[in-house]
């Protein structure tokens, strides 16, 4: 058929465009980087931890209330792959606070040489950790590890606030605690939040996790593992997006740790990391499917998404730190105030410390 070299060359040139069009539909996409995979040994370690946390947590009660001992705790979960740049600020946030009102847990990437805070507040707060990679399910695993450790460690942990090394508090601990446990009006979007109280505590608590059903490029994110990779467990109509940083109730922390079904889908590495941020989808999707009415659908961590670069939010610099900035970051359309904010460069610590007592912790 191809008797002459000219005809053969011409046939190959004509075939090339067709090959480029057909090949992606026939051939599987290239494998993701090996580092993005969850290793079998890490998976086994996590399941053992999760099962211990589940077995020792009550499946029936949300918070354990007592007229004699109404102290419920906030578990502060720090997820970091660098130094805790604002540990001095957090140290001041927790100062003069009774230890029976909070716990601290830190998941630090073990491949990074961190300088651990010298404050006694952070000593022995680092949990057993694994490597983490951006745009990969390792961030989900690390968060679940933090939740399971906090569940297992203290049954009084009632709220679980996920934070990063770039997060700062916007109020005093007292304001933060009262907002979550005592204020009947903090969740201004929920008319039932001001309902009955018992022992001075609200009876109805929700998780503060952002859950959005419409967002740019949502379909591309959904299909980033493959067009049908999430089916049938997660149809596109159930796929959600939201902030990675949340404040969960104990009941919802257990939902996350117990999950095996959705995790089997979200742990699949993406073939396009520029469209894949699993940590922004797993928690909103899971909790939206499990208990949509139990979530506020918004976060308490303020972030500025204007002027984003490579998927990172706007980053505040030292020259921008001021009392006006703190007051502006507090403003919320959903609750009485944001409680935390990100993202700040490490050299913001000095100007933040200068206004800590006079502005940040003065409610």
Automatic annotation (TrEMBL):
Signal sequence region: 1-24
GO CC term (a single one): membrane
Keywords, ordered alphabetically: Glycoprotein, Glycosyltransferase, Membrane, Signal, Transferase
Domain of life, per lineage: Eukaryota
Subcellular compartments: Membrane
Membrane topology: Single-pass type II membrane protein
Pfam families: Branch
Major subcellular location class: membrane
MF (Gene Ontology): glycosyltransferase activity
PANTHER family: CORE-2/I-BRANCHING BETA-1,6-N-ACETYLGLUCOSAMINYLTRANSFERASE FAMILY PROTEIN-RELATED (PTHR31042), CORE-2_I-BRANCHING BETA-1,6-N-ACETYLGLUCOSAMINYLTRANSFERASE FAMILY PROTEIN (PTHR31042:SF140)
Protein name: Glycosyltransferase BC10
Organism (species): Glycine soja (Wild soybean)
Lineage start: Eukaryota, Viridiplantae, Streptophyta, Embryophyta, Tracheophyta
């Amino acid at each position: 058929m191809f008797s002459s070299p000219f005809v053969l060359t011409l046939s190959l040139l004509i075939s090339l465009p067709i090959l480029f069009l057909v090949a992606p539909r026939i051939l599987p996409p290239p494998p993701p980087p090996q580092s993005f995979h969850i290793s079998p040994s890490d998976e086994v370690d996590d399941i053992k931890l999760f099962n211990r946390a589940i077995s020792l947590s009550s499946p029936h009660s949300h918070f354990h209330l007592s007229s004699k001992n109404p102290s419920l705790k906030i578990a502060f979960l720090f997820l970091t792959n660098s130094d805790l740049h604002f540990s001095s600020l957090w140290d001041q946030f927790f100062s003069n606070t009774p230890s029976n009102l909070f716990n601290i847990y830190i998941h630090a990437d073990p491949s990074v040489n961190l300088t651990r805070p010298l404050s006694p507040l952070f000593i022995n707060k680092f949990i057993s950790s694994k490597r983490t990679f951006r745009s990969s399910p390792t961030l989900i695993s690390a968060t679940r590890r933090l939740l399971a450790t906090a569940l297992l460690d203290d049954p009084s942990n009632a709220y679980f606030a996920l934070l990063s090394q770039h997060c700062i508090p916007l109020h005093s601990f007292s304001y933060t605690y009262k907002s979550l446990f005592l204020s009947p009006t903090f969740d201004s979007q929920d008319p039932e939040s001001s309902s009955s109280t018992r022992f001075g505590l609200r009876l109805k608590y929700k998780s503060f996790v952002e859950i959005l059903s419409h967002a740019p490029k949502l379909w591309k994110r959904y299909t980033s593992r493959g067009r049908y990779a999430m089916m049938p467990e997660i149809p596109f109509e159930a796929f959600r997006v939201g902030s990675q940083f949340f404040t969960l109730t104990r009941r919802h922390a257990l939902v996350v740790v117990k999950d095996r079904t959705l995790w089997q889908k979200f742990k699949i590495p993406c073939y396009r990391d520029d469209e894949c941020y699993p940590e922004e989808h797993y928690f909103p999707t899971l909790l939206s499917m499990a208990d949509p009415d139990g979530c506020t659908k918004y976060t308490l961590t303020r972030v500025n998404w204007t002027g984003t670069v490579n998927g990172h939010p706007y980053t505040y610099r030292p020259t921008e730190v001021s009392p006006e900035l703190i007051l502006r970051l507090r403003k919320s359309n959903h609750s009485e105030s944001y409680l935390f904010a990100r993202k700040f460069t490490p050299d913001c610590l000095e100007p933040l410390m200068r206004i800590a007592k006079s502005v940040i912790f003065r409610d």
